[in-house]
Each structure stands twice: as C-alpha cells, then as structure tokens.
C-alpha cells in the first residue's frame, strides 16, 4: 500500500435492540478479512453525507430503513490493505427486520459476552465502549449528608443507574474510605461500577489506585489537572477523565481513557454565573472524538436525547440523580 494512501471513510452502525443486544455481521467471501465479524456499514462515496451513506449501506446489506440514528465515536485504524476512518452511529430506530442481503451471517450479541469470532481488530475498543451506561451519577454527600447520599445512591441504583463516581473532596481519607466501601457494596449488588475521583484526599493517581484496591472500586476518574500531568494511563480497570476544552479531550484520547466528561454544558447551581459551553460548542468539541463523551453541567435524565443529538454518549449528573 502506498505510504500516503487516502483514508477510507466508513459509516458504521451500532444497531441496538431493546434488550441491549447489538448486531454483528460476518464479512462475505471475496472481501478482505472474509469470515471476520464486524458492525454493519460501508464506504462513504465522495461528497456523500455520512448519515446518507449509513442509510444506503444498511438498506443494501440488511434490507432495513434507518429511522433514527445518532453520531457516536470516530476511530481510525490501519489494516495492511487500507487505513479506515470508522464513523460510528447508534441506530435506535429502523423499519424492517435485518436479513443477510449479501450472503453474510448475522448475529445479535452483548458487549460482555460476544460469542462469535474472530472479530475485526478495529472493533475491540468499541465493544468495551458499549459497556458504558448512558447515565453517570456523581455523589454529593457534602450537600446531602452521608445518610442522604447513601439513600440517594440506592434510589438511583434501583432506578437503573449503573455507573457512579465517588467525588467527595471535603472528606478525610478514613471517612472517604468508609463511605466508598458502602457505595461499592450497594453498587456491586446492582451490577454497577464505581469510580473514585482522583482528587481531594485520595492523593493523586498512584494513591487513588491504592485507594481503589482498598475499597473495591472499579477504577479512577481523573480531574483535568491530573489528566494533563500524566505520561501513561493509570493501571486500573476503568478510567474516565474530566475535560473542559479540546486540548484536554485530545489528551484523554492519547492516554486511551475509557471515556471523558465534558462541561459545563448548561448553567449549574454549584457555579452560578460561570461560562458554559452550550450544546453547539459541545457538539463541535467532540466531533470525531475516538472515545465516548458524557455531557456534564445542569443536566437531568430528560436531556439524554439532546445529548445524543449532539454526539454525546450520555449525561453525567450530580443533583439530577435525585429525580
């Protein structure tokens, strides 16, 4: 392949069923990597809008008509035969039943139990990203009190929250450790993950990693100051990062964070009068981002569809989880 071969633009579909399963298709004979499994989609024609290309490819490959799809993440991958830019869309509504129009095989799978193989190498990080819930709850015991925070978290877990951040900068380490252990016990009972904020009394990244081991937490959430000072990704299972601008988002991508949180998008009670991104700038900043991005700042569960419309993976909330 020539050293400066043009990048091939590809529109790719994450077709989500109501039970959380997504569709994979095998590559038919005659194509590179025949027999490998991938997300449905295909090449974008010169000058063709991405969403149009997605709809055309899914009609040709699966016989379905896209009704509602949201731009998600974009990942570039180099194969021996080509370098591709994969523009992923979440397809949540469509007409018709997917059927193999090109003699390929189809299979509905779950992110944590993919039973078909081999899967194309470019799709491995995407499978992990699909394991992220679309709502990210942040604790706020400083405002609600310990008992109130635990009650709030338990109610949120019962309501379906499956990703939590313990963010309590005013607690001393012992109180924070005890509180985190209680949150982890509640969360793991519901099958939820808990990340600990790497600021305040957790004492930086290395100390926070040790804190995760002490409490059973699933990973670290990095404030932007810690993110920008890191040379490598922390050695923890899950790792997210707070970002406020393009430079910080780029660093989160470089370090292969599992996700980023970007904000504030809207005005918040904690920072009245502070400048906000607004939805247009949020959309611009995350366009072509390679990792999922949560919107943060003045958001509630009913803002989820607006977040999707602007390319976000989901919403991060502190006060919003009371509802």
From TrEMBL:
Swiss-Prot/TrEMBL catalytic activity: 8-oxo-GTP + H2O = 8-oxo-GMP + diphosphate + H(+); 8-oxo-dGTP + H2O = 8-oxo-dGMP + diphosphate + H(+)
Nudix hydrolase domain: residues covered: 5-134
Gene3D superfamilies named in the record: Aldolase class I, Nucleoside Triphosphate Pyrophosphohydrolase
Highest taxon listed in the record's lineage: Bacteria
Keywords noted in UniProt: DNA damage, DNA repair, DNA replication, Hydrolase, Magnesium, Metal-binding, Mutator protein
Pfam families the record matches: NUDIX, TMP-TENI
Top EC class for this record: hydrolase
Keyword Magnesium listed: yes
GO biological process: DNA repair; DNA replication; thiamine biosynthetic process
SUPFAM superfamilies: Nudix, Thiamin phosphate synthase
A GO MF label: metal ion binding
TM annotation in the entry: none
Cofactor: Mg(2+)
Family: Belongs to the Nudix hydrolase family.
The name this protein goes by in its record: 8-oxo-dGTP diphosphatase
UniProt source species: Nitrosovibrio tenuis
């Amino acid at each position: 392949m020539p050293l400066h071969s043009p990048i091939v633009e590809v529109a790719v579909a994450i077709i989500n069923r109501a039970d959380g399963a997504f569709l994979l298709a095998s590559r038919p004979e005659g194509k590179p990597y025949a027999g490998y499994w991938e997300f449905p989609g295909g090449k974008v024609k010169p000058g063709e809008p991405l969403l149009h290309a997605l709809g055309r490819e899914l009609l040709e490959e699966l016989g379905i008509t896209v009704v509602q799809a949201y731009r998600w993440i974009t990942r570039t991958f180099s194969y021996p035969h080509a370098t591709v830019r994969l523009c992923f869309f979440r397809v949540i509504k469509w007409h018709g039943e997917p059927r193999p129009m090109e003699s390929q095989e189809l299979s509905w799978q779950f992110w944590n139990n993919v039973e078909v193989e081999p899967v194309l190498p470019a799709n491995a990080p995407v499978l992990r990203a699909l394991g992220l819930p679309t709502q990210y709850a942040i604790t706020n015991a400083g405002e609600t009190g310990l008992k109130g925070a635990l009650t709030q978290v338990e109610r949120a877990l019962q309501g379906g929250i499956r990703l939590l951040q313990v963010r309590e900068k005013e607690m001393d380490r012992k109180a924070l450790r005890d509180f985190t252990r209680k949150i982890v016990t509640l969360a793991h009972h519901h099958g939820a993950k808990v990340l600990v904020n790497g600021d305040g009394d957790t004492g930086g990244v290395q100390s926070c990693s040790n804190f995760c081991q002490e409490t059973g937490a699933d990973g670290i959430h990095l404030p932007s100051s810690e993110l920008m000072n890191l040379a490598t990704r922390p050695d923890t299972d899950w790792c997210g990062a707070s970002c406020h601008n393009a430079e910080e988002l780029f660093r989160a991508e470089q370090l292969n964070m599992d996700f980023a949180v970007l904000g504030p998008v809207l005005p918040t009670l904690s920072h009245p009068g502070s400048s906000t991104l607004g939805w247009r700038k949020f959309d611009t900043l995350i366009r072509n981002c390679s990792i999922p991005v949560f919107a943060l700042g003045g958001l509630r569960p009913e803002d989820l569809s607006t977040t999707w419309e602007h390319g976000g993976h989901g919403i991060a909330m502190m006060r919003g989880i009371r509802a």
